[in-house]
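Posting this for the archive.
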Amino acid sequence: MTDCTVPAGIGLEDRYTCAKVLAASAPVGAEIAEFEGDGSATVEDLVAAPEPLLAELCG
């Protein structure tokens, strides 16, 4: 395990983009770490961010 706390780290849009790129590379697994954000994200936002990767892994 690692602890990679980064002040003002990547947001949900960047996480979604990363998930799309990773999904295109035939992943075999993934770890989704903690997301703190600024408190404005909804549950729907949090679920949508890794969706491309989850769809590839579970699809």
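The helical segments are 12-23, 43-48, 51-58. Residues 12 and 30 are 17 Å apart (CA to CA).
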